[in-house]
Amino acid sequence: xxxxxxxxxxxxxxxxxxxxxxxxxxxxxxxxxxxxxxxxxxxxxxxxxxxxxxxxxxxxxxxxxxxxxxxxxxxxxxxxxxxxxxxxxxxxxxxxxxxxxxxxxxxxxxxxxxxxxxxxxxxxxxxxxxxxxxxxxxxxxxxxxxxxxxxxxxxxxxxxxxxxxxxxxxxxxxxxxxxxxxxxxxxxxxxxxxxxxxxxxxxxxxxxxxxxxxxxxxxxxxxxxxxxxxxxxxxxxxxxxxxxxxxxxxxxxxxxxxxxxxxxxxxxxxxxxxxxxxxxxxxxxxxxxxxxxxxxxxxxxxxxxxxxxxxxxxxxxxxxxxxxxxxxxxxxxxxxxxxxxxxxxxxxxxxxxxxxxxxxxxxxxxxx
Length: 368
Prior knowledge:
The protein is an alpha+beta fold. Helix content is 31%, strand content 18%. Strands 1-3-2-16-15-14-13 form a 7-stranded antiparallel β-sheet, with helices on both faces. The longest helix has 17 residues, at 351-367.
């Protein structure tokens, strides 16, 4: 079996075994973390950081978690709402006046977080994603594809700019800076939205699925370009220096399973972690306040959306293109994170779910 590094409680052996099995099946590298009551009961990693399998995945290896980044962006908005600085029921135009154009006067802040704003597609050049003023100006001028609040369609790239600009207008800080100072810093989490050059040596670049090269494209549903005029994003785009240096709060967060689980454990633990209070319990509950239930127009599948998170029965969280995933279970005070740079075809990718199921095996023993 593939060698696994790190540590885990004996009750959670199945999690380490599941990661080892995936590496045996051909995955390049990954990390898994399970936190219960804010403490790690699993923190393991294995494999390699490069497609040629010459450099081992290390404890401090980080990778682009793609849309798992949305959970970090949502957390920033929830912090502001909990503090009373952001009214989720307010029109976006209250904070961002230029946005109230082209029929968007009635778009509410909660619509941005729940993918119901009607602005699901990025219709500009890829290069414009790296320029915050240009990207947000484009979205401010865009007309919604449906009456805001009446339907949902996954805002794959646009959500981060939309929520991030509201955060910037309120705080005077970019989303990445706000997250670093208000969330990652206080928690000691090794997660960044946008990446400075000093961390490049730790990055495991995304590896396309077998039989694909770096021209493999992302769509809202993963692997297929979105319908309409949406601009497809390629693996090579996400692996570029320009992508790392930019601030794309829907999809360029860099971290590992430990840092993802640590941050999102704030919600699993009622807003306070290791003596640091980020949210009230009511503020945590906002994340799973259902905003939409029905077929998502972009994903083409039934979805329940909360405020920045996908809702799955009593659990919530979200995954990223290529397989990374975070799941929060507030009833059990557990968070499970799986972070990988090895992509698979979305239709055949159950790796994150396997990790979650393995974690519940351990949790049953822990609660006896």
